[in-house]
Amino acid sequence: MSIEEIIENVNEILVDEFEVDIDTITPDANLRETLNLDSLDYVDLVVSIESISGVKLGEADFKEIVTFQDFYQVLFSKVQQKEA
Amino acid sequence: MKYILVTGGSRGIGRAVCEVFAKTTDYKILINYNANKDAAEETLRLVESHGGSGEIIAFDVAIKSQVDEALGNWQKANPEAWIEVLVNNAGITKDGLFMWMQEEDWSSVIDTSLNGFFNVTQHVIQKMLRKRYGRIVNMVSVSGVKGTPGQTNYSAAKGAVVGATKALAQEVAKRNITVNAVAPGFIKSDMTKDLNEEELVKFVPANRFGEAWEVAELVAFLASDKAGYITGEIININGGIYS
Lengths: 84, 243
What we know:
The structure holds 2 protein chains of 2 kinds. By secondary structure, chain A is an all-alpha fold. Chain A has a single domain (about 5-80), classed as ACP-like (Non-ribosomal Peptide Synthetase Peptidyl Carrier Protein, Chain A, Orthogonal Bundle). Helices cover about 65% and strands about 0% of the residues of chain A. Chain A is built from 5 helices and no strands. Chain A is globular. By secondary structure, chain B is α/β, with parallel strands linked by helices. Chain B has a 7-stranded parallel beta sheet with strand order 3-2-1-4-5-6-7, sandwiched between helices. Chain B is globular. At the A-B interface, helix 3 of A face helix 4 of B.
């Protein structure tokens, strides 16, 4: 899966799951604030991402993530590790 | 299809919970057992005799890998099923004076009665969070709220579950998941069959041991949608022995 495919798939599922406008999802936007995530919402996020990528994100992964760009990068490297 | 999972459902209070749910609800009943398959099958037969339906499922609540494998396989085989009610009932006792207690008797009781709560609840709650509804009822004990001499291990484990019940209730309340605990006193079951009922009953204001079905009815209420505003509570059911 290329990073472009990841971005497209992730954005699609985020719009659907968190009912946000696609225009608010920009690489530099803050993930937590844009999606209005509280601590329990991370469960939904993890399950959604697992359903499209097969990758399960953990608490440690989210410590590195602030923006959507960070999110795509973490996911991309995890997907690559899985495919290797 | 909505299920209730009762750990340690093959005997005693666990069996009574399965029976009451079979009689009073539409839930399918997932009866967990560890060692006693015959008893679990008997519970299933009783459930069916009350017009309910269910399945038995084997795992040791004390072993996380077993819990995850058994429940994971069950979920794969039943993709439409979800566990809406979890009754953490499995528990063991290894009584003895603290000064003589073997480390194994301490740790095995903690592994089943405390870590079992973690192992099963953490697996089941993921889907409850996604579905934004759930009921968790933890079977604790008067030992866990009052402390019982000769049961420091059991009292410690159940007391810890009391704390976990209150904490988890606050974490997940926003998602319509309630977490409560039921603390029985002397209840007629295999766990109390070796006790001297005639002597002990003198300490019980109600002047009798409780029946397993009485505890089960309380569990059923806490697990119903009528009890949606009760969470983080520890409800004593002990004939007045401690309040």
